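Example record

One chain of 429 residues, shown exactly as stored in the release files.
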Amino acid sequence: MAVVKPFSGYFYAPSLVRERGIERLVAPPYDVISEKERKRLGEEEYNFVHLILGKDESGYRNVAERLRRWVAQGVFAKDTASSLYIYEQEFELNSFGRRTRTGVVALVRLEEFEKRVIFPHERTMPKYSLDRLELLRATRANLEHIFCLYNDPQGVVDTLCEEHKKEEALLFAFTDHRGVIHRLFRLSDPSAIATIRKVLNPRTLIIADGHHRYETCLMYRRERREALGDPLEEIPEDYAMMTLVNIHNPGLLILPTHRLVHDLPEERLVNFFQKCEAYFDVRIFPNERQMEEFLRVAPPYTIGVYDRKNEQWGTITLKDPRIMDERLGEDNVNRHLDTTILHELVFRDILGLNEEGRGESEYVDYLRGTKDVFAIAREESRYQLVFVMRPTPIEQVEKAVAKFQRMPQKSTYFYPKVWSGLVFRMLEE
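Predicted structure tokens for this chain:
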């Protein structure tokens, strides 16, 4: 099943951390960094963004050279012990109160999806996997984490982690710009590591975040194994660095990802709410506050809508679940998911987003649930419609992977993100 093992991680050298501060060196994962934030992070010459988003006209060759140079110069230090790492994130968000999410950073053996040991839960966009493959080829390093979930109802691993969150084991601690406190501890006790490996070994894993990175690692492993004649012994590319979190961890939180539509021909937007009445019960509200209040208590299959051009706020609620049964078949466990309903009935049928061979990626931006979607829609005049989503329950994620079915892209947003640069792994022979 899930084969987990410790490794000697690389992290920023203590001397540089004392001089610059770890908060100036680390970065969010590459796929949530805006261009504005990228420039801000890049003002620090040793920030991790120069590695994960450092592509130029040479591709990622310059990134590989920079990584080797920084290792040689002592910007990064290699752990002297083979360890697991405890990654704690403490945060407070809206009505959720204060929470702490704890994960274990480890190497995990890659498995093809058909083996049903490591499960995806969302669809991916191939162009992003290919970009990360180019970076991996150049650097031969797992620079960012794949975030996975495991099922440990007794919380054995969580209890062990709590016992080993000791001051002398603390490597880094900082507070990011969203107020999330990040702490990384070293766990090198052989007995504790053996217990964690024993608990996790019979488990399966669900990819929560990092589908593109996982697919990239699979592709690279195939390349390397083919180049080496598919040896019987393990090679470094058989493993990838992951952060593993118990699905029962009290700090595990899923937020929605809203959809913002832009650049559609105006004729497709005419009488939008009237067109929705073919599938949905429609409610119109005088302002966004009343719409948001209704969404908190709305029945299942309800999506909020802001028509920016006409300054209208409304909700659409699927009239009958059998509409989706007929559309996708009753064997599709994601058929009643809000994102599936939106993509199938609204994007495809009502707005015609896939006409002329142009897919949703041409017309839709995705906005994480921690941001004010209405404020952004007003600031950016190109947005025409905003779809306000509700969080996908973790039970739905489990149901989807049990049937080996993938949700539409961006159906889940696990908060907070696992940051990059606290620890990484070089694929050394």
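Notes: DSSP finds 14 helices and 21 strands in the chain.
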